[in-house]
């Protein structure tokens, strides 16, 4: 993996700490009554195997939003004509060409014409939009052919509107340029406190072939293709941005330079409703602050129904025409080129191929929330995503270090092909097919709540298949000994229709709190792993069906018990465990019906005897079904057990558990195959042999 290094003055810096492989130490563990203490205890050491630096330089031209009318040349738009009092601008009918650097104050209405910047000067061109309405029926209304840098300054208190037609007479048909309402072949910056509305009826709305920086302003984009696009990068420092696009919302697509093609968001409020990906980068995405509200592909309700039948949604194809544009200006009064009889070099709306980046390898449109081909780092901010496909997706590594997240996904909530690390933040995945998925997942800290129709947390090797056209009923990742789920801290709550924690390799837990409300069907388990589940610290509680139930491995250092009841117990039925002298160990009411419960807690002591009850009531404080304090009463005694091994099995169903967890696999119903795999593990491998669609964030 490469490193991006740039000399800078002001830096927006991210360090993506990929793949942390935890080094497990043997330590004492915590119990239910000491969960807070557990979270402050041992943290496994880890080493970073890769990092990527993204930096953006903001110079004085970018930062300066002040201007003086006495220092500016005036360009006045008068319907079909233009007047200019400066020497650096040449007027030809309804077109004005700026050929020198400097500040130009533009005001008025241009019904069908262009502002063209074409200068070889080494200084920036500053365009002050001082209340403009510019329309062009046949090309980009604002076209930067050549300039060191162009700065669009939105004058305080003004409203500015830029609108194009549905067909262009292209200056360069081979490169399909220009192909945006505001189109620049060089660096472009937007600043100021005024308002800008861009209506793109032909292709993209705002597009720079080099760097695109948004410093401030109130910007609204309505686009039939991509909304805001910077080939080398898009950097948003602040502002209020509303994007309604049939294509991607924000895109950077440089695939020729590994140091470019990224998107960096520092602050501001960004609202995106997109037909394809909301935020899509050829290399990396950094979010360090601000508020990002996203709906992509019609939202999670438009996610394609999975073959397993577990995932709902409309199951249809998203109609991009249903995107509600924000008051697109009427250009009917403008004489437009007729696409049916256009001259050579004329392209109609939709003919451009410049917005093909958000297409998956199987040819389907990508409708993710945030997507990057190399890495994603989120250090802070507020991120709200409702996506038809994955909400946050990296084809490489992904790191969340802070922030507040509300996610609803038609496929995966958070997905990374290679490594995924969470070091903090409040993450609520309210809807997903699979909640969190990667080859290696490391959870160091954070408050994580997951609702998934299939697996809550899935660790497997390979590349994710798109949700488009459904899933095979199991994830397309393959079984692999190189797959790990490492839990070193945090509070993790999982509600899964499939497996709660699923690893095609192994699970290591050293600290933190994990609560799992697992499957009601017998074909899945609250815990499912192919290697081992080594627990040396923390607090684990997992409830679900008994058909595929697993406990932790006997190579753990903390004692656990797996209790299998004679029959299913209804949702919200309390399971209660106490010591032989009546001390509370566990009071838990799973949110769904269950028949098996796994508890791994330091309250479980070797050679000690415990009693298990079900039913009854508690006067304690209930958080996520787990009661603390209060008094338990009215339950039915199930069994007593004595802790003799690292894993103790209790209940009649334990007869189907092989060695009842005494073996390193933690016990499988019906035993294992010759390779020590569970029946689920064998199904996973069989699934992985089927054809897989490898997704490319182009």
UniProtKB/TrEMBL annotation:
Keywords of the record: Signal
Keyword Repressor in annotation: no
Species of origin: Ruminiclostridium sufflavum DSM 19573
Entry keyword Signal: yes
UniProt feature, compositional bias: Gly residues: 658-670
Record-given protein name: Uncharacterized protein DUF4353
Region: Disordered, residue numbers: 329-367, 658-698
Biased composition range(s): Low complexity: 337-367
Superkingdom as given in the UniProt entry: Bacteria
Basic and acidic residues: bias regions: 674-683
Xref: Pfam families: Cthe_2159 (PF14262)
Range of residues in the leader sequence: 1-28
InterPro entries, alphabetized: Cthe_2159
Biased composition (Polar residues): 684-698
